[in-house]
Amino acid sequence: MTLTANWSYPTAIKFGAGRIAELPAACAQAGITRPLLVTDKGLAGLPVTAGALDILDAAGLGRAMFSEVDPNPNEINLAAGVAAYQAGGHDGVIAFGGGSGLDLGKMVAFMAGQTRPIWDYEDIGDWWTRANADAIAPIIAVPTTAGTGSEVGRASVITNSVTHAKKIIFHPKVLPTVVICDPELTVGMPKFITAGTGLDAFAHCVEAFSSPHYHPMSQGIALEGMRLVIDYLPRAYADGTDIEARAQMMSAAAMGATAFQKGLGAIHAMSHPVGAYFNTHHGTTNAVCMPAVLDLNADVIRDRFDRATGYLGLKGGYAGFRAFVQDFNDSLGIPRGLRDLGVTETAIPDLVAGALTDPSCGGNPVPLTETNLTALFKAAF
Ligand SMILES: [Fe+2]
Questions:
Q1: Domain range for residue 296?
Q2: Structure confidence at residue 108 (pLDDT)
Q3: Is 160 helix (H, G, I), strand (E, B) or coil?
Q4: Tens-place pLDDT, residues 107-132
Q5: Are residues 205 and 251 in the same domain?
Q6: Torsion sign over Cα 53, 28, 254, 64
Q7: CATH value at residue 102
Q8: pTM of the entire predicted model
Q9: 354 or 71, higher pLDDT
Q10: Rounded Cα gap, residues 31 and 42, in angstroms
Q11: Quick one: 148 and 200 in the same domain?
Q12: Model confidence at 141, in pLDDT bands (50, 70, 90)?
């Protein structure tokens, strides 16, 4: 099977090895003539980024880059990015990288023409209608990891540098116009990042699959997404140059983010405040939290996992899946507890408070309370 295709779901996706060469065509498709490539500090100096800039340059599109983006991007990074965008007279953004570069790039395009502070557009009710939709610049997304799925999402996570809260900023027009999913861009990812980002995609699929909301399309996508991670993450982890495994993981990442329209849950509600306070890796934190969350939700999600495990190639129904998750984490070098990520137990009350107000909280199959969240965090230590 050739792992190359053009998809228009949920947006235009150019999928396949080597397709970064089509970046100039993507700019034309999105109506961008003066792109600003936004990526994070770590990626800025890597050959994969220089390669993308060379492709733009050779096509007469310049090589403008903004990379003052922290691992958990905040409003300070955003203000600097918007200033760079305006100073350069740009007319669109290439959001390039993992979750940080993609999320901040999307927000630079969003905020370049807005007049209110970013927090006024948090994903609450219809707050997104406060934005001037006509002023949102076109976005091309180019993921270089396989996890966040932000390339197919209509939101970004931005950390408030003062309160440490992670806020989801949503607008339908933040969905990138064109996505280039080129698995060759992910080949250089170190093992730790391959595992952490891959398990973020897994958490998206598991939480969407577990969420009580009605969305059968997402349910199907989440199931196949779980299968791809189970089958291909071990291969991508063992051999980073395995392009088939890298491609399938890139699909799984986009599928996880498509599926979680149905809802996320306690894994993300826990992981967001942990990341905001302790700067831990998002996907790795999710993986550490997953076993405790499965235990909390067991009675409600047992039937659907009993049905799923046959398709996933796992024996023993829900119990088999639960046992598999711990073995999977262990095989991918994931620590057993939050303590190993540098999280301190005295922070639990703050983490519980953060989780209770996290937007993912409402998608958990068992309603989350101060009591069960406190027990969850203790179990995850
Ligand atoms: Fe996530």
A1: 191-380
A2: 98
A3: coil
A4: 999 999 999 999 999 998 899 999 99
A5: yes
A6: positive
A7: 3.40.50.1970
A8: 0.95
A9: 354
A10: 29
A11: no
A12: very high
Cα 55 to ligand 1 centroid, rounded to whole Å: 30
Give pLDDT, residue 67: 98
Question: Binning pLDDT at 50, 70 and 90, where does residue 231 land?
Answer: very high
Q: Report CA(177)–ligand 1 centroid distance (Å).
A: 22
- Same domain membership, residue 197 and residue 180: no
176 shares its domain with 242: no
Q: How far is the CA of 313 from the centre of ligand 1 (A)?
A: 24
Distance, in Å, from the CA atom of 324 to the CA atom of 234, rounded to the nearest integer, reads: 13
What is the whole-number distance in angstroms between the Cα of residue 34 and the centre of ligand 1?
A: 31
CB 286 within 8 A of CB 199: yes
Of the three residues 141, 169, 186, the one that is the final residue of a domain is: 186
Q: Are residues 208 and 100 in the same domain?
A: no
Query: In this structure, which residues have their CB less than 5 angstroms from ion ligand 1?
Result: 200
Q: Give me ligand 1 centre to Cα 199, in Å.
A: 9
Q: How far is CA 285 from CA 79, 158, 207, 281, 340, in A?
A: 28, 17, 14, 6, 10
Query: Which has the higher per-residue pLDDT, 8 or 218?
Result: 218
Residue 222: CATH number of its domain: 1.20.1090.10
The residue among 186, 217, 233 that closes a domain is 186
